[in-house]
Amino acid sequence: MAAAPSASAYKRILLKVSGEGFARQGQTALDVDRVSRLAEQLLALHREGVQVACVIGGGNILRGAHAEGLGIDRATGDYMGMLATVINGLALSDSLERFGVQTRVMSAIDVHKVCEPFIRRRALRHLEKGRVLVLVGGLGSPYFTTDTAAAQRGVELDCDAILKATMVDGVYDKDPRQHKDAVRIPEITFQEVLERRLKVMDQTAFALCQEQNLPVVVFDMDAPAGLLRAARGEKIGTIVRNPA
pTM of the prediction? Predict the structure, then answer.
């Protein structure tokens, strides 16, 4: 079946989904209903002809940065976190395949029994053939977050933008969970984020996006059709980019 004309503002996107987005609020277990709802939106984008690569987090299972509090060596904890992203990625891939969308799960760590290794040229070919990429294992090295993995893969795969699905509806001038008077900022430059010390992504990821002129759209993944609206360039969440 030929893809429908695209209503998206972007031809190719990198979707970053945190591990928390795979679990119910306040819980840590994998929630298949949430995964299925995300897959439905990805199906709609796929039908519009948008090429999609997804970088998956594993924080609903384990964050490497929190492992030290459990008495686990940080590097070991990070590797455990990478394995957690594989679990989430396989769940998303399975859900998409049930909707009839071809996927490829590609991992930065060697788990060849369940994933392909991430090879840039092969990944680009999958995108060109209309397959949804599910990228797991972070960057394959400890001490790097999945935000950094998203920025790196977004640049490597020549994506037009990073869509960062979070549990808040954009970037605020202060933490909205702690300040009732926090104000959402609909559009801001990378430099302004740095000057105001706003938390969008970790600094390594953010610096790469700024340097490579890769815009970042931060949106609430629980907003109705949030992913579709963000991909279509609608006014949802916050867009961070260099000045024109």
Answer: 0.91
**Token pair in block for residue 31:** 């929630």
For 175-199, the pLDDT digits (tens) are 888 888 999 999 999 999 888 888 8
At residue 199, the pLDDT reads 82
Q: How many CA atoms does the CB half-sphere of 139 hold within 13 Å?
A: 17
Q: Report the 3 state secondary structure along 113-158.
A: CCCEECCHHHHHHHHHCCCEEEEECCCCCCCCCHHHHHHHHHHHCC
Q: Are 126 and 157 in contact (CB under 8 A)?
A: no
Count other Cβ atoms within 10 Å, centred on residue 221: 24
* Separation between Cα atoms, residue 232 and residue 198, nearest integer Å: 25
d(CA 28, CA 217): 25
CATH class for domain 12-241? alpha beta
DSSP string covering 144-210, please? --HHHHHHHHHHHTT-SEEEEEESSSSEESS-TTT-TT--EESEEEHHHHHHHT--SS-HHHHHHHH
CB atoms within 10 A of CB 100: 9
SS3 59: coil
With beta carbons less than 8 A apart as the criterion, state whether 242 and 218 touch. no
pLDDT, tens digit (0-9, with 9 covering 90-100), for 65-86: 667 677 889 899 899 999 999 9
